[in-house]
Structure formats: structure tokens, C-alpha cells
Amino acid sequence: MSDDRTQIDEVQDQGDGSGTELPARDLPDVAVIASLMESFEDATFTAAKYASSETIYHMIAVPVADWVAFATEAKDAGFDTFIDLTAIDHFSEAPRFEVVLNLLSTTDAQRIIVSTRVPYDDPSMPTLTGVFAGANFYEREAYDLLGVDFSGHPDLTRILMPDDWQGHPLRKDYDVGVVPVEFKAGSVDV
């Protein structure tokens, strides 16, 4: 086990007394992050450190139903700096789309990366614009390029592609080459 995680070995409440034990759950050693995760039983935690960096990335996966509540509690716990929100198309996996939120606590000098997954047939989830106003354009970008629908967003319209564009060009099943490339005058086609 990594030095960045703590394993909970004891189950505090045995429930109905049947003797069925719950599996151990990994929680971070960082108190503010461990405290944040205690409210979300379905959240999972992993830590990663890249060889070229001393930064430890605390990655937390939450169900889409907990997305806004987790972001709200994270902000209240001190992760009040919205860094980034992006989406990833995991073409051969289900659920297919992953939405990733990057938050920073300037008071604790900690960073969390929160993610959730939505399926191809219904790539929708609630907006975070009520929690972090800065999520506005990032959610519009994820909608425009990957087709993730953020319900409750104040202006979920295209931000990069023309309004009449068909499809979402960063989806891995998007047909490439359907739009001819027009080079500047004097350039040579290769």
C-alpha cells in the first residue's frame, strides 16, 4: 500500500449483526480530504505521483448523483479554487464519457481531481455553475466538443464550433476528414 493512503481495517457498525463485513476502503492521509470523503460512501480514492514531480494528485471518483453535492462540500472544505473541468471519451469503455474536475485548496496547499462517468446513450449530468461560476465556459467546451449535456447550465451553447456544426468533433467515433481543409494562398498541399 502506498504511503499516501490509509486503509480502514475495522467496521464500526455491523448493521444487522449478521457478521458480514464490509470491504476495506482506502482514504487519504490528508485529513481535509479524508473528512470530505467520509460523507460520500460511494466515492473512491487513489493517489498518484508522477516521477517528474513532487506533487501528489488525490483522485476521487464519485457517482454522477453526488457530483454537485461533492463539489459543494469540497468548496466548503477549502477547495475553493476552480482550476479546470474537462471531459474524456473512453470509446471502448462503459460508461463512455468521464468528466474531470480539478480543484485547489490554497489554505491547505492540496489539490483534488474529482471525476465521474456518464454513458453514451445519455451523456448528461448537473452543472457546477451554481458552485463554481468558472465552470461555465469549461462545461460549454465539453458540450461542444464531446456532447456532454450539463442540465441547469445558464447558456449551454457551442463555444468553439460554429452554431450550425453537426456532431461533436472530439468524440472518438466522429468521422474525420468530412470537412475539407483549406490552406492559405501560396501554401503547398502535401
TrEMBL record:
Its EC number is 1.6.5.3. GO terms for molecular function: NADH dehydrogenase (ubiquinone) activity; oxidoreductase activity, acting on NAD(P)H. It is an enzyme of class 1 (oxidoreductase). Residues 1-24 are annotated as: Disordered. Residues 61-176 form the NADH:ubiquinone oxidoreductase 30kDa subunit domain. Transmembrane segments: none annotated. This is NADH-ubiquinone oxidoreductase chain C. Keywords: Oxidoreductase, Transport, Ubiquinone. InterPro entries: NADH_DH_suC, NADH_quin_OxRdtase_su_C/D-like, NADH_UbQ_OxRdtase_30kDa_su. Gene3D superfamilies: NADH:ubiquinone oxidoreductase, 30kDa subunit (3.30.460.80). Belongs to the complex I 30 kDa subunit family.
